[in-house]
Structures are given as C-alpha cells and as structure tokens.
C-alpha cells in the first residue's frame, strides 16, 4: 500500500477522509501527515512537527531517536498526535485542521523509556486514558504496558500509572510494545504487537475496565506467507461499516513498509485480521468511492529553490542551508564541517525515503565553489553509505568522485576512480534493484558510464536507508560556495526477466 519506510503507522477517519502519520525519528520536519479517501491511494499533505525539541539536543543527527511510534486521534474537533521520545518522555501536539497550524510540543509526562503512547477519550463516561510501552534501553523495563488516567485536555496524566498488561506473564510473548487503545462493543481494546519487528505478531487485548484484567489473543501472524513480522498499526472503520487494519512489515534497507489488511469481528467477539489471521497479498478494495492513483511525491524540480514535502533534514536545520531564488533548482550552501568525511554525522543532508520497488534515481548537479575540498552529491545513506558527486580539487579542477563507508568505518574511501568534470556539471544516477543493491553511474556529457561496485544499502537501527542530497566544504573561514541540483527524478525499473 505504501511501499516505503512509513514506520509505525497510525490512522484515523474523519468524515470521508482518512489520515495517517508515522515515526520520523530524528528527521526534520517530522510527523508526516498523509491523506486518502480510499485507504489505498495516499498523498503527503504536510508535517505536524517543524522542529525537534529541545532544539539543542537535535542540532546534530540522532537518527534513531526523536519521534517514536505516534498515535493519531480526532477528538473535540481537533486532531491530536501523541508520541514518545525515549530520552525525554511523552509529547502531545494538536490542531483544528490536519494541515495545521499545530501547537508546539507539550511534554505530558517526563521520563526515560516512555514510548508508544496512545490516548483514548471515552465518549460513554467522559474519562480520558493513556497507555504506553517501555524501552528497555533507557528504562531497564520492557514487555509491559502501563495505563494512566489523563486530563481530558491531554495536558497531563492524573496518576502514577498501573501495569495493565505484563507480557512476561504470557507464555511465549516478548517485546510487547506499540499499543493502540480503542473502545468497541462494551470492551476496552488494546491492539499491540510483540515478538520483535522482523519476526513478531499482532496481539489483541480486551477488558471490561481500562485497568484490567485483560485477556489476550494473537490476531495476525506470518504463518506461511511472505510477510514477515506483520504487526503494529491501527484499526479504522469506513463509513459503510467495513473494518481495516494497517500495519508494517520490516524489510531491511527499505524500512517498515505499510500493508492494508481486511478486518472483521468474529463470532467470539475478537478481531480477525487478514485471512483467518494471516496477511493477504491481494484483496478486494475497501467499499469506498474510486479514487485516481496517487502516492507520496518523490520527483522535484525545486521551483524557486524550494523543496517538496517529501524531503527532510537529518537534524534541525539552520537558515541558509538552502537558498531561494527566481529560477528552478535546489541551491545548497557548501556548509563547512569537520565531519565532511562522514555523511552520517552531518545535519545538513536533505533526505527522502528509499523507494521499496526497483527504481532509478537521477539528478543533475553543478558545483559553484572555488573552495578546495568542496563537494556535493547524491547519497544512499544508512549505517553504511555511498555517494557520487563532484569535488573541487587542490589544483582547481572539478572532479567526479564516488565514495563509500562501511558500517564500522569512521570515514569514507574511494569506490571509483576520479574523473575530470571540465564544466563542473554531471548527471548522477543510481539504479536500486532487488535487495536494495545500488548501481551507480554518471554522465559528464559523453553518455552514461558505470562507477564502482554494487553497493548494498543498509538501514539504521530502526530507520530504513535514505536518499540524500548534500553540499559540504572543509573547515575554514568565509563563504564556501554552493551547489545546484535540478530535475530530481525517481522512475520505476522493470524487473529483469530470468534467462
């Protein structure tokens, strides 16, 4: 459904419209906002979080920190998003319209390891509740869910919390997390995954009272399908009364891609997801008005120097990294940095998600810098990275270069032989095939040429690999020039037929 890294999705319906958000970790802007009218075709309409706070903590990349597993709800004519920052606590923002303006982040509960929060406003009683999970890496605790009473305005929690589901007491269960809280048919329901992102399953818990006791059941698991670890997402009901469940599947460098599964309520009152608890690969579309094909944007001509919603920085941005102007093309300043040898440490890399299907990525680049060592390029960025681009040499020439760094390496090294770029201009191309294997090529005006060996993209710990554009210069004084990127395109590649 969304074949890219829209990690830990949650969904809500308001009238005839469906909205989705996802984890954004340390990227800025964060908390993407997607819209659909048929649960199949989605467009990216904005972001709810313009900067990560406290700002000083996110001046440099913290790729696996920041925004974890948000919950999206609509209550009292407002949209609400709650998320856990594993190092700070539970945050909340809200807005009367999905496109904002959204409030600044409000810290609902401070604490280490408080993750995956989900609120519930009980329309029957007027009470408000919140459930969250725990990150062992920060708190020493995991595999349990804690419940709180919450102020109806979502501003604070009204008690110290109670352990409402202890995964250690359920035989075979581990890493219980990602709870989503609902009311249905007189029950409190918690839909929560367990078993880890690559091998886990989706659980359902129900109780007549919010604080329990809860009974549990596995309602979705891989079984004999190709969908590993199908879990963590949200339940939504269409206007006609159909039920659907959105969840992710961990796919290595591609990140956590989103699936849509049919859902119904069985005769025993428990949800049945997919085909009797196994994911389906093909199914009739939801009973909703047909919509034209749509997907989150990828291509960009950068009109006026502005970049589209699909792009995010790897940390809180500074003024001047991208310059607006009268024409088309992204003009990035060659930011001076002592970490120019390691793209993983740089906040000024403009990124978007790696496509989940075989694709070709292309962009044109021109380097406008006389600074020796200034460089700019197109990268595949993860725990390991590789990039192609241009660099100004000590002799004043501009060269095409191709570099990479392994996951354990502290700095990059050459992946191909430098080539003279007399006009300081190049067309860059990366073909991403099965298994996120990347083949690089370039065109200096004499036709495309391959460069270097195949590079297998790698994820971060929780984040899929990213495509990135950047411009850098060594430490020094004064303005170091800029680079211009034009005609960014991602096109599908037809799979190669077996011989």
Describe the protein's topology.
Blueprint: E1 10-14, E2 17-21, E3 30-36, E4 43-49, E5 68-75, E6 78-85, E7 89-95, E8 106-110, E9 114-121, E10 128-134, H1 136-139, E11 144-150, E12 162-166, E13 180-184, E14 187-194, E15 201-207, E16 215-220, E17 231-237, E18 243-250, E19 256-265, E20 271-273, E21 312-313, E22 322-323, E23 330-333, E24 335-336, E25 350-353, E26 359-368, E27 375-381, E28 385-392, E29 398-405, E30 413-414, E31 419-420, E32 425-432, E33 437-443, E34 448-456, E35 466-473, E36 482-492
Parallel strand pairs: 24-35
Antiparallel strand pairs: 1-2, 2-3, 3-4, 5-6, 6-7, 7-8, 9-10, 10-11, 11-12, 13-14, 14-15, 15-16, 17-18, 18-19, 19-20, 21-25, 22-23, 23-36, 25-35, 26-32, 26-36, 27-28, 27-35, 28-29, 29-30, 29-31, 32-33, 33-34
Explained architecture:
By secondary structure, the chain is mainly β. Helix content is 1%, strand content 45%. It contains 1 helix and 36 strands. Strands 21, 24, 25, 27, 28, 29, 30, 31 and 35 form a 9-stranded mixed beta sheet that branches. The chain has a 7-stranded antiparallel beta sheet with strand order 22-23-36-26-32-33-34, with no helix packed on it.
What would the average pLDDT be, to the nearest integer?
Answer: 96
User: Biggest sheet, in brief?
Assistant: 9 strands, mixed
Tally the helices: what do you get?
1
Question: Mind telling me the C-alpha Rg?
Answer: 24 Å
Low-confidence stretches: none
The N- to C-terminal Cα distance equals 30 Å
How many extended strands? 36
């Amino acid at each position: 459904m969304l074949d890219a890294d829209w990690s830990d999705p949650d969904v809500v319906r308001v009238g005839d419209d469906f909205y989705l958000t996802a984890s954004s970790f340390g990227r800025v802007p964060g908390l993407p906002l997607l819209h659909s009218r048929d649960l199949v075709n989605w467009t990216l309409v904005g972001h709810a979080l313009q900067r990560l706070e406290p700002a000083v903590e996110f001046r440099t990349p913290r790729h696996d920190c920041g925004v974890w597993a948000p919950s999206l709800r609509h209550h009292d004519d407002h949209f609400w998003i709650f998320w856990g920052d594993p190092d700070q606590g539970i945050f909340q923002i809200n807005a009367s319209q999905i496109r904002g303006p959204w409030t600044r982040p409000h810290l609902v509960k401070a604490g280490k390891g408080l993750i995956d929060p989900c609120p519930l406003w009980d329309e029957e009683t007027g009470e408000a509740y919140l459930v969250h999970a725990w990150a062992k890496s920060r708190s020493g605790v995991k595999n349990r869910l804690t419940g709180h009473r919450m102020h109806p305005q979502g501003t604070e929690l009204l008690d110290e919390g109670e352990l409402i589901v202890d995964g250690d007491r359920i035989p075979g269960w581990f890493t219980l997390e990602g709870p989503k809280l609902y009311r249905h048919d007189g029950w409190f329901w918690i839909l929560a995954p367990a078993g880890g992102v690559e091998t886990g399953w989706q659980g359902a818990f129900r109780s007549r009272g919010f604080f329990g006791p809860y009974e549990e059941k596995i309602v979705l698991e891989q079984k004999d399908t190709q969908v590993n670890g199908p879990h963590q997402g949200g339940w939504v009901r269409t206007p006609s009364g159909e039920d659907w469940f959105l969840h992710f599947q961990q796919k290595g460098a591609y990140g956590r891609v989103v699936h849509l599964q049919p859902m119904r309520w069985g005769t025993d009152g428990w949800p049945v997801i997919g085909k009797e608890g196994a994911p389906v690969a093909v199914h009739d579309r939801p009973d909703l008005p047909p919509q034209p094909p749509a997907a989150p944007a990828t291509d960009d001509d950068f009109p006026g120097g502005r970049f589209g919603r699909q792009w995010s920085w790897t940390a809180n941005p500074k003024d001047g990294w991208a310059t607006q102007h009268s024409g088309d093309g992204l003009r990035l300043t060659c930011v001076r940095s002592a970490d120019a040898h390691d793209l993983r440490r740089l906040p000024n890399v403009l990124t978007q998600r790696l496509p989940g299907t075989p694709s070709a990525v292309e962009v044109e680049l021109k380097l406008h810098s006389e600074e020796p060592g200034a460089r700019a390029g197109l990268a595949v960025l993860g725990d390991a990275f590789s990039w192609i681009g241009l660099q100004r040499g000590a002799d004043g020439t501009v060269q095409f270069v191709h570099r990479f760094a392994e996951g354990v390496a502290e700095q990059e090294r050459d992946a191909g032989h430098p080539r003279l770029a007399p006009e300081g201009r190049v067309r860059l191309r990366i073909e991403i095939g099965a298994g996120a294997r990347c083949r690089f090529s370039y065109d200096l005006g004499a036709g495309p040429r391959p460069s270097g060996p195949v590079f297998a993209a790698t994820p971060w710990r929780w984040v899929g690999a990213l495509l990135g554009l950047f411009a850098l210069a060594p430490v020094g004084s004064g303005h170091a020039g800029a680079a211009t990127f034009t005609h960014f395109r991602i096109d599908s590649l037809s799979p190669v037929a077996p011989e």
